[in-house]
Fold this sequence. Notes:
Helix content is 48%, strand content 10%.
Amino acid sequence: MTVKDIPIFLRACKREPTEYTPVWLMRQAGRFLAEYRSLRRQYPFLILCKTPELATKVTLLPIERLGVDAAIIFADILLPLEPMGISLEFTKGEGPVIHNPPRSRAEVERLRGIEAEEDLPFVMEAIKAVCRELKGRIPLIGFSGAPFTLASYLIEGGGTKDFVRTKSLMLQDPSCWHILMEKLSAAVISYLNAQVRAGAVVVQLFDSWAGILSPRDYEEFVLPHSRRIFHELSSKVPAIHFATGAAGILEQMKTAGGDVIGIDWRIDLDAAWRRLGYDVGIQGNLDPAALLGPPERIESRVAEILHRAEGRPGHIFNLGHGVLPQTPEENVITMVEAVHRLSKDK
């Protein structure tokens, strides 16, 4: 196998030279695509996630249409919580609702451990089916929510803006907090390793809410658990570590682990990479709202980010969060084409 036989996305994850900058998008498989919206009118969200044929279809929807350099399995970060004993529902307009949030030591201790192949077989079946369809043309990314983000959803009972219950447990009963984080870390390790065994060749850890923490609190309450996950990945596949609003904890995230650190648009890419050091890759970091603008503005923003990356090996182009539902499909295509075309000129 020659270097050019290795998918460009994998080479970028390993900070190897590439002919152009690879690009994929968080939430690229849903929400803004007409075919996905049609499926959502027919099926509840969890049914889409738990039916391998449907999850496979949704995963593959954007590949040819958008020209991205990686696929990501269609699932949800909260799926591992159900086999732990959590009652989970996705309500229209409100997102995830957890009906039995664990907020005491006794409730935390009752949470079960999981064996991902047995407890989440539908995800593994979808991964295997997607890999059969892709035939190695582009890599498939597996993913999980990180322990802190999962804990936040659990304790709050769903989404939140202030994280009061989460921080209260963390600060008032640290030992209970760490028991919860240990249980969640074990579940994430099982889940990610099972995805790799099923065929995922890259994994991403989504710590969507870690940016609400101070560096000190991240170091004490989060970092040891995230570091355990990266340490216990059974296969040395490339791992991406992503958080939003995390400009204040970049160095701590790098210490926790990951071959590539994902950043959002609240920090310039070159400044973030200098702080992280060039011994890790970087992913990002276009504001998703930029895709609501005209094509010339989209191309200008793409060019600016590529300029900040300086053609350095290890840059993966992405948004700083998921594609917004109202994003015109043609604007996404404009962005992907601009990334490929402009980075070839570097």
